[in-house]
């Protein structure tokens, strides 16, 4: 049996529950240089990013605790939050 030494999975902190989780279990939200907020499906979009669990509760927490605003150093509009939660819901259904 081969010993697997490659267990250094990159971890990121969810801006909702503040738990560190493997990057691939989290959703990346990105603010593009144009100022657009989107769910980064590919994980490679340009811009400032924040990570969140694929869980509507974490998004709610991030909104309540202003974690999103802190992560992006701006006030995130309600419209944008609705859009993000819809995009997260879509990802969850895959
Ligand atoms: Zn979370």
From TrEMBL:
List the InterPro entries.
Answer: YlxR, YlxR-like_sf, YlxR_dom
Domain YlxR residue range list: 12-84
Which SUPFAM superfamilies does its entry note? YlxR-like
Name this protein carries in UniProt: YlxR domain-containing protein
Source organism per UniProt: Lachnoanaerobaculum saburreum
